[in-house]
Amino acid sequence: MPTIMITGANKGLGLEFVKQYSQNNFQVIACCRDPSKASELTELSQKNNNIDIHQLDILNQDQVSKLANMLAKKPIDILLHNAGIYGQGKQSWDDITLASLQATMLTNAFSPFLLTKAFIKSLHAGERKQVVYISSLMGSISDNNSGGVYAYRASKTAGNMLMKSLAIDLAKDNMRVLILHPGWVLTDMGGPNAPIDTATSIQGMRKVIERDDTTNGGFYNYKGEVLPW
Ligand SMILES: NC(=O)c1ccc[n+]([C@@H]2O[C@H](COP(=O)([O-])OP(=O)(O)OC[C@H]3O[C@@H](n4cnc5c(N)ncnc54)[C@H](OP(=O)(O)O)[C@@H]3O)[C@@H](O)[C@H]2O)c1
Q1: What is the CA radius of gyration of the chain?
Q2: Contact 12, 198 (CB under 8 A)
Q3: What is the pLDDT of residues 3-61, one digit of tens each?
Q4: DSSP per-residue string spanning 139-188
């Protein structure tokens, strides 16, 4: 049974990834900041013995290295970086702050990159050797026609670049990196006007993840279409 590790697994897209992968014969390492509050995830793990819940705040480097050491002998086929934040406020020219830029960059760009480094042994031991980064079209420079949203946009652009370099550096070890935009999805982050439900987005992204003809380090949406950087 292949193993997938998912961050931010307690709600939204992360929880739906756990649901679908656990139903599709994956062993799921479901990570979340506070398992005591993750009631839906806990309920799911009680019904499915292929879900293990672990506490992980991706910003907390002590927690990251403790979990990486604990799982060092466990092969991980897919490391799926889902956890992310939108950041505070509108992030417009008028209200953007250093604190907001820093927090968003740390969570959305630097932490997934460092998490990959921490779990590299487990990824080497896995058969699929796949890293998946949930990015956003908001991080596309050429698609930016409306400006603003400085922190979120910049964090996803930086995350894309880190993952692209990682794809090149790890190719020699037969590792593959995929950068995905889930669409605009009905979650706490996506809000109530989003046109896509989580089930549709995750079904689409799973198909893209399973494809073996995607470009290593490529940027795709949940329909498998190539996106502009
Ligand atoms: N929804 C959309 O329309 C959309 C569009 C493009 C991209 N995305 C991306 O898709 C991913 C999932 O978003 P979503 O829509 O499911 O958002 P969401 O409902 O707000 O869920 C975000 C998840 O990330 C977790 N998280 C945040 N900071 C964390 C940290 N430091 N350590 C560990 N977990 C952390 C949250 O945990 P807590 O519950 O503890 O806060 C939550 O589980 C994000 O990377 C987002 O940028 C979403």
Answers
A1: 17
A2: yes
A3: 999 999 999 999 999 999 999 999 999 999 999 999 999 999 999 999 999 999 999 99
A4: G-STT--S---HHHHHHHHHHHHHHHHHHHHHGGGT-EEEEEE--SBSST
128 residue type, one letter:
R
Beta bridge mates, 78: 4, 130
Substitution site in 11, 39, 62 for ligand 1 pocket (most atoms within 8 Å of beta carbon): 11
Please, which residues bridge with residue 185 across strands?
A: 196
User: pTM score, two decimals?
Assistant: 0.98
- The strand pairing partners of 28, in sequence order, are 4, 51
Protein residues with CB under 6 Å of any ligand 1 atom: 7-8, 10-14, 32-34, 57-59, 82-85, 107, 134, 136, 181-182, 184-185, 187-190, 194
Q: Write out the H or E segment, with its range, that includes residue 55.
A: strand 51-55
